[in-house]
Amino acid sequence: MAGCLVLLLFLALLSFSGNADVSIDCGALDSYADENSIVWIGDDDLFKNSQSEAVQPRNTASHVMSTLRVFTTLKKNCYSITADKGSLVLVRASFFYGNYDKRSSPPSFDLLFDGNHWATVKTSLDQLVYYEVMYVVKSDTTSICLAQTQPNQFPFISALEVRNLDSKMYGDVDPNYALFLRSRVAFGANTTVRFPDDGYDRIWVPARVSSELVSVASGAILIDVANAPDNPPPEVLQNAITTSNTSGSITLNPGFPDQDVSVYMNLYFSEVTELDTTQKRSFIAYIDNMKSSEPIIPPYGAAKEMSANFTASANTSISLVSTTDSTLPPLINAMEVFYVSDRLTDGTNSKDVEGLGELQNTFSVLQEYWSGDPCLPSPYTWERISCSNDDIPRVTALDLSSLDLSGPLPDFSSMDALVTIDLHNNSITGPIQDFLGALPNLKDLNLADNSFSGPIPQSISSNKKLKFVASGNPDLCVSGKSCQPTSTDGTIITSTPSGGRKKSNKLPVILGTTIPIFVFFWAIVGFLVHHKRRTAAIAAITAGKTGGANGPSVANTMMGQVGEAVINEIRVNIQDQTTSENGDQSIPQQ
């Protein structure tokens, strides 16, 4: 392990699906277009384990910011948005607390994307804060997640926007790294510039400048940005700042943190005056007093872009200084500053993502627990799974017990790193699939108290390293030749559930034991009756000759003794069988 589109509930811990470009007014009911012609879609009917809230009326910043969605139950809550694999996207998440809960306690929480940490969100009581990131999508979806980090500080979000960018933009950055926006400013501008002026809906805010600098407006009617690789909107080039004297310089202060950070910076220039042959504007960019560019000569009616990648801290200085042959002071029209992320994760192993997806598709209840990357970031692994610590983690344990799962078990054989599978106390039906016994690392398999039927696969019954429990499945049998619930070593396996939830059917076992004895008993009785009659006839003949005999016949006595012995034998066999049936409910592995 992504403007408007059709939205789907993809997963939940909570999940939201769409196609980039997308604008989500979180907590809203309806769709609408705002003053910038951006169409927003609400998400109110897409979530189960969250609440839609409205900010206090006196705190409303805009219509988009008047509602929010808050997550109070799960540790990781995600929006999942379909995107083209390999596409470059801009994602912006906005947060306006507005004292929606009347506690005057704006929360803090983590913001994640595609298994990577994005930012620790620090919301304000009455100020809008937003975070923006640009990255290359590594699969056909991208997930943006909110994660709780402090007790009783519930994550919320006011708006989520995803924009597709041209794949050639910001091409100096390795696609294995993301760009976190530090600032994007339009120098000399009086208003914010965004869509529709910026077709990519980047937000350019007016810059705050010192009194030593002056704002100037361009005299060009049209400004061509074709030579600027990152496509700045012409509107941000129609104004600039400069100094009042030729020898002056411009110092830029983006506000870097105390600790070292990796920075990517774009500077944009466009001449504001059509110069004559006696005029020249030429300057050089310096970073920490080190020359960082060749002489920059801004073109009139066009754009020039300078990019730099460097390590910065609070003491870093950025300045534009005139060259010795320049007759005019330096100027600058716009600037973008980003922090460069650590190397992006490739996400959880795709084989596990595939298998977990099959489980989600089959058992819809899992959509309430799972969204985003299964294993990453590691503090926010999905509920009911365990993962390895590999760079590309594997899912090693799956616990779906007592979730009221029903229906047949899907094929998740791609999850070949599983060591433990626990599916007990559900209502899963159908046969036990052969792939379970073939999982190379599986050591514990608990299928107890379900409704599995048919034979136990040979891959399981012959697996000597596997601890297998299958009690509480009345219709389960070991051999395909017979559907009597018999273990692999020939002993009786009863189907009494461990929790007493299902009843076993002992009649086949009792009948299988008593019918042969019953037939044998009556065969002996028939023989004895025949023998008695023959003996009686002989005795009668003898008596006729001798005058008769006194007392009971030997045949009657013998028959009674034999009959009693046979009846005792039947009782012993039934008692032995009952003892076996109340034994261990797991299938012993030999």
UniProtKB/TrEMBL annotation:
It is a single-pass membrane protein. The keyword Signal applies. Residues 1-20 form the signal peptide. The chain crosses the membrane at residues 507-529. InterPro entries: Leu-rich_rpt, LRR_dom_sf, Malectin-like_Carb-bd_dom. Pfam families: LRR_1, Malectin_like. One of its GO terms (cellular component) is membrane. This is Malectin-like domain-containing protein.
